[in-house]
Design brief:
single chain, 454 residues, alpha/beta, Rossmann fold, 2 domains, 7-stranded mixed beta sheet, 4-stranded parallel beta sheet, 13% strand, globular, binds pyridoxal-5'-phosphate
Length: 454
């Protein structure tokens, strides 16, 4: 099997380190299916600038600056292509994909599956995506367009148990190689190194250019597989006062109170505590309402005239928001606003969060609102603006030793009882050194990749 050229972590963190000919080819290629785009799995754009937006305080109602790193320009339109690449690459390096007939199986609620549909064939494999039948029509279409097979399991975003059951059946066939984002540390390592590393570099750059002045005071991320939140571990290792804040839907408050339920925030709230979530390092948990997130996305996409008229936000700022925020992006933003309020953060306390995908995945969701309520009115816009500026309906829980222990113990039911992990493996996850050891493996992986290229 001929493998494509594969980038290292360092080259994705800082694409200016990529060999000049490769970088030029990646920038020049207009074929979205060209494997050279593996080198564009980065938080920077083709001008080597970070893609981010700083939210105006008129919208957030808080003094702490909220910096949103934007993922809409990753090769598949979401940062989840990164963990896919990272997990597949580690399987390759471990010799698990020698069999030419190997089919990569991606359990997902959408964006990891879209990433899998794209990455698999780029690296010479067939892809099969397992996702719940109620995910948005746009997700199914993208997966099909990349040529992957699909198995649709019963239910919605939070029905991950049904996905696991399907994957356990698929495991019986040796050609199926399961890329389980919820348990594979390639997911953790990508976000620790690339998302966390990029957040550090971005804030340093914002300070150097006098755009902002201050330190990262919090990293906020809603959990799906809980890969993205690993960026917080990197930021906290660099600056121990940085808070790590997890977000989940009020309608499915799994960590908050062992809660369950369906909800509309695609990509997060998967009704279990994932194996790769370093719960002992999490400082705060915020739960937000799903309908507020959907309506907030509608406001940022369709209500920009209202935002200009009611809040005086400059047109040129609003123009940069087109297609940038999906539902879970708004969930993260609301979580960041709640964080600023909870800790009473000031202007020099920078909160970093992520817009994990753009609006291109959700026109059908907004269409449903139109069918029910018609176009966005001034009254509707004011209600949505209020939910950013004066949000009060969120729930907050501190990460005390007691809650952290409970979050850890919750892993037992999914992972030891159902998915075959041992108690020793579970107990190992409680130790902070387990996680720092995982993060430290990136250098070794980079060396192996460079050796393959030479
Ligand atoms: C749109 C969206 N937001 C957030 C997430 C959560 O990211 P993570 O799985 O890294 O926790 C996902 C994951 O699939 C997603 O698709």
């Amino acid at each position: 099997m001929t493998l494509p050229l594969m980038p290292t972590f360092q080259e994705l963190l800082d694409p200016s380190l990529q060999p000049a000919d490769i970088r030029a080819r990646a920038k020049a290629s207009t074929d979205p299916l060209d494997p050279i785009h593996l080198f564009r799995i980065s938080w920077t754009n083709d001008e080597d600038q970070f893609e981010y937006r700083i939210l105006p305080p008129e919208l957030t109602g808080v003094a702490a600056p909220i910096v949103v790193m934007c993922a809409y320009r990753f090769p598949t339109g979401s940062h989840k292509v990164g963990p896919v690449y990272s997990c597949v690459r580690e399987s390759l390096l471990a010799g698990e994909l020698e069999d030419k007939s190997a089919k990569l199986v991606f359990p997902s609620t959408g964006n990891f599956g879209i990433g899998g549909a794209w990455v698999g064939p780029r690296m010479g494999f067939r892809s099969l995506v397992v996702l719940p039948e109620e995910m948005s029509a746009e997700r199914f279409e993208k997966i099909r367009n990349y040529g992957a097979e699909i198995i649709a399991t019963p239910g919605c975003e939070s029905n991950v148990k049904e996905i696991y059951d399907c994957v356990n059946q698929l495991k019986q066939s040796p050609e199926n190689k399961i890329q389980n984002q919820f348990e594979k540390f390639g997911n953790y390592r990508f976000h620790y190194q690339i998302t966390g590393g990029s957040a550090l570099r971005l804030v340093e750059e914002l300070n150097q250019t006098n755009v902002l002045s201050g330190k990262v005071a919090a990293f906020v991320s809603a959990m799906g597989s809980a890969g993205t939140i690993a960026a917080g571990d990197h930021l906290k290792a660099a600056n121990p006062s940085c808070k790590i804040v997890g977000v989940e839907p009020i309608q499915c408050p799994t960590l908050y109170n062992v809660g369950y339920g369906g909800h509309q925030i695609e990509g997060i709230g998967d009704k279990h505590v994932t194996w790769v979530h370093n719960v002992r390092n999490m400082d705060l948990l915020v739960c937000v309402d799903d309908q507020t997130c959907v309506e907030g996305m509608q406001l940022l996409q369709e209500g920009r005239d209202h935002l200009a008229a009611e809040l005086g936000i400059a047109e040129d700022v609003l123009a940069t928001w087109d297609n940038v925020f999906g539902i879970s992006s708004v969930c993260n933003i609301l979580g960041a606003i709640a964080t600023a309020r909870h800790y009473e953060m000031e202007e020099d306390q920078i909160i970093v969060t992520v817009a994990t995908d753009g609006f291109d995945r959700y026109p059908s969701v907004v269409e449903r609102i139109h069918q029910k309520e018609g176009p966005l009115t001034q009254k509707g816009a004011l209600k949505r603006i209020d939910s950013f500026r004066h949000a009060s309906g969120y729930w907050v829980q501190e990460g005390t030793m007691e809650t952290r222990r409970r979050w850890h113990n919750q892993k037992y039911f999914t992972w030891v009882e159902q998915q075959g992990k041992s108690l020793e493996e579970l107990n190992a996850l409680w130790e902070p050194t387990f996680w720092s050891d995982q993060a430290a493996m990136t250098d070794e992986i980079d060396s192996a990749i460079l050796k393959m290229r030479s």
